[in-house]
């Protein structure tokens, strides 16, 4: 070599060390300096908010100037509840117990008017018709309570505070070997301080404890006694394009209680009958009436309604987020382009030359993209719920009360949903290295199943359930505001906001897809020539 | 290692049925511009991608300052590279393009503004890079390569798309970078672009090094010089020079082409014989000719028969 001998160039002292923080900063700079991506995220946020506003503004449930919607009771935990039944009660001061023998539980179901014929009534018992003993913490709807009961087809049970439910050993009145005059059922409710214990017996001698619950802050004097209620007859309407509204028909139940035995201090000398009513929730069949008769020591009580979680008539908080999927499309596009644009122009080579440890590049991209889209989703969801709620209230519409925890879960969960969808798009983009292809795949995987199964239900319920279990669209379950309770019969279809998977389980399905896509993308990024 | 700052050893790489690199081996020294020359498809870009850890070779290895690229923690402070001037997001401004790159190395906006000034991009820096001419993109690529103030620079076809003024600027700029003691490797498929700037050449073809030589040695080893002589006594002159051992060709019109003797010797011989001559002119073999001669066999895609080298 004939090159002149020279001292190699030495740069000045290097400032700082290689760090993941540099990489994060670089990716943040990359994202914020492409106007189209920033606009996409802002548009996604605004669209989500505006559709919440639109949903609230077009609400026609109520009327301007005052609420015309049915009263929605709120349970002790803050959730919407139904609290309607016929109550034959007396005050109970301090500790005591009430024991009863249930000798019959029958009911009437009204079949609504149809093109085939006029409305008719027929004898029949709803599976969740209830008759038994109850101790309530207060007179208003939504008060805390503990009850023991015979049901139509779900055996004997203890239930408390709307969501609590424990089965007992006895059979329901509508089941073989259930309650009848020939085979009565004995129930007992005991109160000691805040604690209520329930018992079940076939003969009044050998007792089985069903459960014990604590009702904190229970007043010294409470109302206790007999109750009967019967929920609407619900047909499982399979979802169709015309909509999956549930049809409810009025029912009632009538129970016979004998040998009412009281222990402790029951200061009143007589029983009082009260129809605890909940608007449309307690609808009696034609010719049927709430009330009770007392003859020869036997109480015959007729009631309708339900004591259960959930209510009809309000707008659940997740309905205000129904437009999210539109904003999600913009987020998916931005997430895909965040990586595929680098491949399109060959800029990925510059990125990988600057950061040879490729797994960290993808991790930094995922964190930055996830962070940005989480923030956008949070602002969008919170804005939609806040604005939607205000408009609903102004229009006199009811908002389904939800616990603070539920609202936080729906809003924060929506933000996580948005972020994970974006990261999923990033992972698929790194695998496919093609923008349009990535957007197509991700939208087909996430948004299409959601549209087909939940937003515009064109699929039968079985197929819809399946799609919302196995596709990334399962993540939308995080928006379910009203839980599905086994002790409430209802039209639990995706169209009505009920997802086949629990909220966090559904989100976990989406996260699993994103994790697999990201893992495969990392593997390929390390292995492939750039 | 002495002062070799890029070391390429035994690279082999196959893309499908094409053998892109077939034992590529060379080193690049500091303090000079090394031209990396070869016809299109010779493996220059692939070699550079392997050096930067972008492509994995089937065999062989590369080192930067004695270390594999993967081990460099802030690699742009060790090697600055310009591979493809079009590799940028068109909707991002030139300055923001440099800014993300600076951030990835822990550098700040002040360094970005320095390299913008160095590469003469002040006017365009805040415009979208998608609107840049190819020459401006080359300058932006140079600015990106300089960000980390690296001791090694590696530029793939930096003259592409530059106007003559830009080419002159680029040559001076590369020379000044080498004069600072940096190792500068510049690839081109046109030797003429490297003339006057490269002092060392790595000439490649078909994935191999054909010649690893200084420019001076290459010229010396090229075909012997030819001398044209204009004389009215061409028969006598041809005889005298032929007797002295030269090969003489008569081109007619009183012009002889002589090879095998230096111009000085020819003037002396003709003077001694008192033969008249009006012009003696030496044709030096150009770098281009020497290069074409070397790579004649290595050109994969030749549109037409090459010009004769001598």
What is the topological layout?
The complex is a heterodimer of chains A (530) and B (310).
Chain A: H1 20-32, H2 35-57, E1 73-74, E2 80-111, E3 120-123, E4 130-136, E5 145-151, E6 156-160, E7 164-167, E8 185-192, E9 195-201, E10 207-214, E11 221-229, E12 233-235, E13 247-249, E14 251-265, E15 272-276, E16 291-295, E17 298-303, E18 306-309, H3 324-345, H4 347-354, H5 358-394, H6 404-432, H7 435-455, H8 461-470, H9 503-527
Antiparallel strand pairs in A: 1-2, 2-3, 2-8, 2-11, 2-14, 2-15, 2-18, 4-5, 4-11, 5-6, 6-7, 8-9, 9-10, 12-13, 14-17, 16-17
Helix pairs in contact in A: 1-5, 2-3, 2-5, 3-4, 3-5, 3-6, 3-7, 5-6, 6-7, 6-9, 7-8
Chain B: E1 4-15, E2 18-29, E3 32-37, H1 44-51, E4 59-64, E5 79-82, H2 94-104, H3 109-118, H4 134-146, E6 152-156, H5 164-179, E7 183-188, H6 191-194, E8 200-205, E9 208-214, H7 215-221, E10 226-230, H8 234-243, E11 247-252, E12 255-259, H9 263-272, E13 279-283, H10 287-295
Parallel strand pairs in B: 3-7, 3-8, 5-6, 6-7
Antiparallel strand pairs in B: 1-2, 1-4, 8-9, 10-12, 10-13, 11-12
Helix pairs in contact in B: 2-3, 3-4
């Amino acid at each position: 070599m004939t090159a002149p001998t020279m001292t190699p160039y030495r740069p000045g002292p290097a400032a700082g060390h290689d760090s993941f923080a540099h990489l994060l900063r670089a990716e943040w700079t990359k994202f914020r300096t492409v106007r189209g991506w920033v606009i996409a995220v802002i548009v996604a946020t605004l669209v989500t908010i505006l559709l919440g506003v639109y949903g609230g503004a077009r609400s026609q449930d109520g009327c301007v100037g005052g609420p015309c919607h049915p009263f929605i009771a709120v349970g002790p935990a803050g959730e919407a509840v139904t609290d309607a039944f016929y109550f034959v009660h007396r005050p109970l001061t301090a500790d005591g117990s009430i024991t009863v023998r249930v000798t019959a539980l029958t009911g009437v179901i009204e079949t609504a008017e149809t093109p085939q014929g006029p409305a008719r009534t027929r004898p029949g018992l709803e599976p969740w018709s209830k008759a038994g003993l109850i101790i309530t913490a207060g007179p208003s709807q939504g008060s805390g309570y503990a009850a023991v009961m015979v049901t139509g087809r779900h055996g004997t049970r203890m239930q408390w505070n709307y969501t609590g439910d424990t089965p007992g050993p006895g059979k329901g009145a509508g089941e073989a070997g259930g309650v009848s005059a020939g085979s009565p059922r004995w129930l007992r409710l005991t109160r000691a301080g805040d604690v209520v214990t329930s018992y079940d017996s076939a003969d009044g001698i050998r007792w089985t404890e069903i459960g014990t619950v604590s009702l904190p802050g229970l007043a010294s004097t409470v109302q206790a006694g007999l109750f009967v209620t019967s929920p609407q007859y619900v047909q499982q309407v399979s979802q169709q394009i015309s909509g999956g509204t549930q049809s409810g028909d009025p029912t009632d139940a009538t129970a016979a209680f004998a040998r009412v035995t009281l222990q402790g201090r029951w200061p009143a000398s007589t029983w009082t009958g009260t129809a605890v009513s909940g608007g449309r929730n307690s609808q009696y069949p034609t010719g049927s009436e709430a009330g009770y008769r007392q003859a020869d020591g036997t109480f015959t009580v007729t009631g309708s309604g339900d004591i259960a979680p959930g209510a009809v008539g309000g707008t659940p908080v997740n309905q205000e987020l129904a437009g999210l999927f539109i904003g999600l499309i913009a987020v998916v596009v931005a997430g895909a382009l965040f990586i595929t644009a680098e491949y399109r122009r060959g800029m990925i080579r510059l990125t990988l030359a600057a950061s040879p440890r490729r797994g960290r590049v993808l991790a930094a991209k995922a964190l930055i993209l996830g962070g940005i889209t989480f923030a956008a989703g949070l602002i969008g969801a919170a804005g939609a719920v806040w604005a939607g709620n205000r408009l609903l209230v102004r229009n006199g519409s009811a908002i389904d009360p939800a616990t603070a925890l539920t609202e936080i879960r729906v809003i924060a969960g929506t933000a996580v949903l948005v972020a994970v969808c974006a990261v999923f798009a990033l992972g698929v983009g790194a695998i496919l290295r093609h923008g349009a292809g990535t957007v197509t795949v991700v939208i087909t995987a996430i948004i299409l199943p959601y549209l087909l199964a939940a937003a515009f239900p064109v699929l039968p319920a079985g197929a819809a359930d399946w799609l919302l279990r196995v596709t990334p669209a399962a993540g939308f379950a995080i928006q379910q505001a009203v839980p599905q309770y086994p002790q409430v019969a209802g039209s639990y279809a995706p169209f009505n906001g009920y997802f086949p998977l629990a909220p966090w389980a559904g989100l976990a399905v989406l996260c699993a897809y994103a994790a697999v896509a990201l893992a495969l993308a990392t593997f390929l990024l390390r292995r492939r020539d750039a | 290692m002495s002062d070799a700052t890029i070391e390429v050893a035994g690279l082999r790489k196959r893309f499908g049925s094409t053998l892109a690199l077939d034992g590529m081996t060379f080193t690049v020294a500091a303090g000079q511009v090394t031209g990396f020359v070869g016809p299109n498809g010779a493996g220059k870009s692939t070699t550079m991608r392997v050096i930067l850890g972008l492509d994995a070779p089937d065999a062989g290895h590369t080192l930067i300052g004695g270390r594999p690229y993967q081990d460099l923690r802030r690699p742009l402070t060790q090697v600055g590279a310009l591979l493809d001037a079009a590799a940028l997001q068109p909707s991002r401004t030139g300055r923001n393009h440099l800014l993300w790159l600076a951030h990835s190395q822990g550098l700040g906006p002040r360094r970005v503004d320095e390299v913008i000034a160095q590469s003469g991009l002040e006017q365009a820096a805040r415009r979208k890079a998608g609107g840049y001419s190819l020459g401006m993109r080359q300058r932006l690529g140079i600015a990106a390569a300089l960000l980390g103030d690296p001791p090694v620079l590696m530029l793939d076809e930096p003259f592409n798309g530059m106007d003559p003024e830009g080419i002159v600027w680029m040559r001076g700029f590369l020379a000044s970078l080498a004069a600072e003691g940096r190792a500068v490797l510049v690839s081109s498929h046109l030797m003429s672009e490297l003339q006057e700037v490269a002092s060392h050449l790595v000439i490649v073809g078909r994935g191999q090094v054909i010649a690893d030589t200084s420019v001076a040695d290459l010229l010396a080893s090229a075909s012997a010089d030819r001398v044209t002589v204009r004389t009215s006594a061409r028969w006598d002159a041809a005889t005298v020079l032929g007797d002295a051992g030269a090969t003489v060709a008569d081109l007619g019109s009183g012009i002889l082409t002589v090879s095998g003797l230096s111009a000085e010797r020819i003037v002396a011989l003709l003077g001694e014989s008192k033969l008249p001559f009006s012009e003696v002119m030496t044709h030096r073999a150009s770098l281009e000719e020497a290069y074409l001669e070397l790579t004649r066999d290595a050109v994969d895609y030749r549109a037409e028969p090459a010009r004769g080298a001598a």
